């Protein structure tokens, strides 16, 4: 009745980031067809006070990166938020996937005891367990879904299967 | 380095559904201010071919309900999708929370071996592990985020804290 913390994070974040690459690729096709510039595309948003597509994708990458580093005591590499083109964003996702691929299940021993703090909420912390369940996982899917929704709102040909990516279906012989 | 399957699902789904109740309450205030009818509110959507707000909330509830029932071998109660008013939707969320509250951690023993099938994909299944990680968790947050995004897109006064809900922050004495 237990599951490895590694399994609910690292390989699944990689699977979802690979799905995001495909979602973004479909978004690029939509933008080309509508003759939107890269700037128009990546600055698109659902509400005036919400982050635009480009920032949503950067945060999706960072939530995955920091979840793995914070729960293992590693120091995550810093990525400058300078992406401007389609190729830049695909490379950002690839860099994040490459970083995640270095982690092993054993590194998550003691994850529950780690204190996770944020500069925007001084003198408070989430323990590793609550950070994982209440913060990192919900945030990862929040930004992934919002990126998807911005592209779908713009008219990109997307469905749920694009968001979920390559699930491990097996043939049922029954 | 392991976490209880119960802990990544049941209490967190309850926490998120309680957050959804508050998000919906803010959406109601926005709708009242703009003199939107309940039908206009719950039929709002981000793309013409995507489910509207009402359906997004129903599915959020159902993903949580079925995740718990499928991984434990229980039979989930059937909820008719007839909600039309603000009170109806709050009651649907409450019914789902009440159902989730009946589960205990021990019921998830053997979760990984359960076969999860869907009528829309015959002759294929996801094992319990992959259903949990690749399907149920991403889908739950997909529909929760989409409900939030529809309301934010309509001008509801919402921020990330409303989505995340009541996290277990602790004071840091260091």
Descriptive labels:
homodimer, 174 residues, mainly alpha, two-stranded antiparallel ribbon, 4 strands, 57% helix
Characterization of the model:
Two copies of one chain form a homodimer. Chain A has 174 residues and is mainly alpha-helical. Helix content of chain A is 57%, strand content 6%. The first copy, chain A, has six helices and four strands, in the order βααααββααβ. Chain A has helices spanning 5-33, 38-42, 53-72, 86-100, 128-153, 160-164, and strands at residues 2-4, 115-116, 124-127, 170-171. A two-stranded antiparallel ribbon of chain A has the order 2-3. In chain A, a hairpin with a 7-residue loop joins β2 (115-116) and β3. In chain A, α1 (5-33) runs antiparallel to α3 and α1 (5-33) packs parallel to α5 (128-153). The model of chain A has no long low-confidence stretch (mean pLDDT 97). At the A-B interface, β1, α1, β3, α5 and α6 of A face β1, α1, β3, α5 and α6 of B.
Instruction: Summarize the largest interface: chains and residue counts.
Output: A-B, 57 and 57 residues
Low-confidence stretches of chain A: none
Q: Hey, roughly how much beta strand do the residues of chain A contain?
A: 5-15%
Helix content of chain A: 55-70%
Largest sheet geometry of chain A = 2 strands, antiparallel
- The N- and C-terminal alpha carbons of chain A lie at a distance of 25 Å
Q: What structural class do you assign from the helix and strand content of chain A?
A: mainly alpha
List the total number of helices of chain A: 6
Report the order of strands and helices of chain A: EHHHHEEHHE
Q: Give me the Rg of chain A, rounded.
A: 17 Å
Query: What is the subunit organization of this protein?
Result: homodimer
Which sequence of strands runs across the widest sheet of chain A? 2-3
Molecular shape of chain A: globular
Mean pLDDT of chain A: 97
Number of strands of chain A: 4
């Amino acid at each position: 009745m237990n599951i490895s913390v590694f399994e609910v994070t690292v390989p699944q974040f990689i699977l979802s980031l690979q799905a995001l690459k495909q979602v973004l690729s479909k978004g690029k096709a939509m933008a080309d067809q509508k003759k939107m510039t890269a700037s128009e595309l990546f600055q698109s948003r659902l509400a005036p006070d919400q982050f635009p597509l480009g920032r949503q994708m950067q945060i999706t990458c960072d939530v995955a990166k920091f979840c793995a580093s914070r729960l293992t005591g590693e120091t995550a590499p810093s990525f400058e938020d300078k992406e401007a083109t389609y190729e830049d964003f695909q490379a950002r996702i690839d860099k994040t996937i490459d970083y995640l691929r270095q982690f092993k299940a054993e590194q998550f021993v003691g994850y529950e005891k780690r204190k996770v703090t944020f500069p925007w909420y001084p003198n408070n912390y989430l323990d590793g367990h609550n950070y994982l369940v209440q913060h990192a996982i919900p945030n990862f899917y929040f930004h992934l879904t919002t990126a998807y929704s911005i592209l779908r709102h713009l008219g990109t040909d997307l469905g749920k299967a694009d968001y979920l990516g390559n699930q491990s279906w097996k043939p049922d012989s029954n």
